Amino acid sequence: MFESLKKKLFGLKKKATEVAPEQEKIIGASRRDIDESTLDELLWDLEVILLEADVALPVVEEMKDSVKTSLLGKRVDKKYDVSDAVEIALKGAVEAVLKDNEFDFDASVKSRTRPVVIMFVGINGTGKTTAIAKIANRLQKMGMSSVLSASDTFRAGAIEQLTIHGDRLGCRVIKHKAGSDPAAVAYDAVEHAKARKRDVVLVDTAGRMQTNVNLMDEMKKIKKVIKPDLVIFVGDALAGNDAVEQAKTFDDEVGIDAVILTKIDADARGGAALSIAHAVHKPIAFVSTGQDYESLVRFDSKWMVDRLFSEKGQAA
After folding, report:
1. In the predicted model, is pLDDT for residue 29 greater than 80?
2. I want to staple 183 with a disulfide (CB 3.0 to 4.6 A). Which of 64, 69, 225, 301 is the partner?
3. Residue 170 has pLDDT above 80, yes or no
4. Paired strand residues for 148
């Protein structure tokens, strides 16, 4: 994952080592400065690399500022390559973007009054229904029971898909016929959970294009009826900046509390993971790294930095 961005970042490090001897300012016999002309060239290359990797422009600017602050006038010991200083600055920039974007889903659910109601939103094709099943599996491992609400009544196939997951996991699925009022389905699921003393209600919703006003209004109705404890946006990492714009629109229209980023294993560019939480100022709770129920990884900044800067698989 993130192979394109990783290769380009390592290319940037290599270039830093190549250009520094020509442009560096010698400070005594043992230390040297990274001068401004060298830094400007590196920052330009960094901007191009990040934009090509689908990193949103505001995030690019923040990372450039962080790298410039870290490197401008930096004295590098002669025994170290300039590329080492560049890598440290890049890592710091990534961590700065991701700071405050970590979310302890498990602790949040455990601390709330039962049943905890979680509403999932996002457009078609992001893997939202499968993400719900993965969350239900995770909750089971925590000793918590779930009720699944098939509130995507827009597509009969969505009801069937959630029912299959419910059968596999042993979770009750509350559903009405296709075309029914999705808010009514969600309401029934919450009432069932209360009556049967279930711990969590996971509410699937229709995969709505963020520009569809009628469907957005319908989703607002669901939220008003069930008053969810959490609204989680499920975004596709492969969608890049489109996923960022989707998240911003859903947050503006409905309000989201956290993000699940799917298909991260297939994302060669990696920009969405850097951009989406920054754009909506909401944390990424999980990333999905595969199709099976166990392939849901709690997101943290160290996880991201380790994968971006691991040299495994990099060309020399």
Report:
1. no
2. 225
3. yes
4. 173, 202
Q: Average pLDDT over the chain, rounded to whole?
A: 82
Which pLDDT value is given to residue 184? Answer: 97
- Whether the pLDDT of residue 4 is over 70: the answer is no
Alpha carbons within 13 A on the beta-carbon side of 104: 5
DSSP letters, the chain, are --HHHHHHHHHHHHHHHHHHHHHPEEETTTEEE--HHHHHHHHHHHHHHHHHTT--HHHHHHHHHHHHHHHTT-EEETTS-HHHHHHHHHHHHHHHHHTT-B--HHHHHHTSPSSEEEEEE--TTS-HHHHHHHHHHHHHHTT--EEEEEE-TT-HHHHHHHHHHHHHHT-EEE---TTS-HHHHHHHHHHHHHHHT-SEEEEEE----TT-HHHHHHHHHHHHHH--SEEEEEEEGGGTHHHHHHHHHHHHHT--SEEEEE-GGG-SS-HHHHHHHHHHT--EEEEE-SSSTT-EEE--HHHHHHHHH--TT---
The candidate with the shortest Cα–Cα distance to 316, out of 4, 5, 1, 7, is 7
Q: Within its chain, how far is the Cα of 210 from the centroid?
A: 18
From start to end of 175-290, where are the E strands?
A: 200-205, 230-236, 258-262, 284-288
Residue 188: helix, strand or coil by DSSP?
Answer: helix
Contact status, residue 150 vs residue 163, Cβ threshold 8 Å: yes
User: How many residues are listed for the chain in this entry?
Assistant: 316
What span, in angstroms and rounded, lies between the C-alpha atoms of 275 and 281?
Answer: 10
Q: Is 114 exposed, middle or buried (0-12, 13-18, 19+ CB in 10 A)?
A: middle
Least confident range of 71-85, 168-182, 195-209, 261-275: 71-85
pLDDT tens for residues 263-308? 887 655 667 777 887 778 888 899 888 889 999 988 877 777 776 6
Percent of the chain with pLDDT over 70: 78
